[in-house]
Specification:
Layout lengths: L1 H12 L37 E4 L3 E2 L3 E2 L6 H7 L5 E3 L8 E8 L13 E10 H6 L5 E4 L13 E10 L9 H5 L6 H7 L7 E7 L5
Parallel strand pairs: 3-9
Antiparallel strand pairs: 1-2, 1-4, 5-6, 5-8, 6-7, 8-9
Length: about 210
């Protein structure tokens, strides 16, 4: 979150208020970039110091993607996969990383949950510590692209410890579609257990 802090400092030097009681909701148009962290219950999903870093934004974990500087457009149309770092990863173990949207097509009607945006297995703990992931790609990274007028979507990253000797793979039916993925069944099938760390960020369609 160092980059976000630098932006907020710059805002304060310009005499604007980026946080506090007078801070606008993230939808409000403004020449100043307002970054807002998630409130409960969404913030409770974030645990374990898992970092997800996009260009110019830094660590977006547990925050809204602001509309200013075309950030919502850029995360959905321009930027590739983020750097994901977990400083507490065990160097001797491997991990599985999942990125899903549980709000497809909308949070009010999530009939296609979970939409699979990224799936990596065999991630070495040493690579997680640096954020330079070289795991086995099961699902290529798909940018967050919330449909118009569907409100905010949660983009959730879950990091699991991969059982020793376990070969993680998608089944033939799972590979046919990214939407309506039975993520819980996948986790149970490979005995992944609970995530060792998780985080999420929220964004909406760039024109909303």
């Amino acid at each position: 979150m160092e980059l976000l802090g630098a932006v907020l400092l710059a805002a304060s030097l310009l005499g604007t208020t980026a946080w506090g009681a007078q801070a606008p909701w993230p939808d409000e148009p403004s020449h100043t970039c307002f970054f807002q962290t998630l409130s409960s219950p969404d913030s409770e999903f974030c645990r374990g110091d898992l970092e997800v870093v996009y260009p110019q934004l830094g660590d977006v974990g547990c925050s809204y993607i602001p509309q200013c500087h075309q950030y919502r457009w850029r995360i959905s149309r321009e930027w590739g996969s983020p750097r994901v770092r977990y400083p507490w990863a065990d160097k001797s173990k491997k991990y599985v990383l999942v990125l899903v949207d549980p709000d497809a097509p909308s949070r009010a009607n999530p009939k296609n949950r979970f939409w699979r945006h990224w799936l990596l297995a065999d991630i070495r703990g040493t690579d997680l510590r640096t954020g330079d992931l070289k795991g086995r790609v099961l699902t290529d990274y798909v940018r967050p692209t919330p449909p118009p007028r569907s409100g905010y979507h949660r983009y959730q990253l879950r990091l699991y410890e991969q059982p020793a000797g376990q070969h993680i793979a998608l089944g033939p039916e799972e590979m046919l579609s990214l939407g309506a993925w039975a993520m819980e069944s996948f986790v149970e099938r490979f005995r992944l257990g609970s995530p060792v760390a998780s985080t999420q960020f929220l964004t909406k369609h760039h024109e909303d």
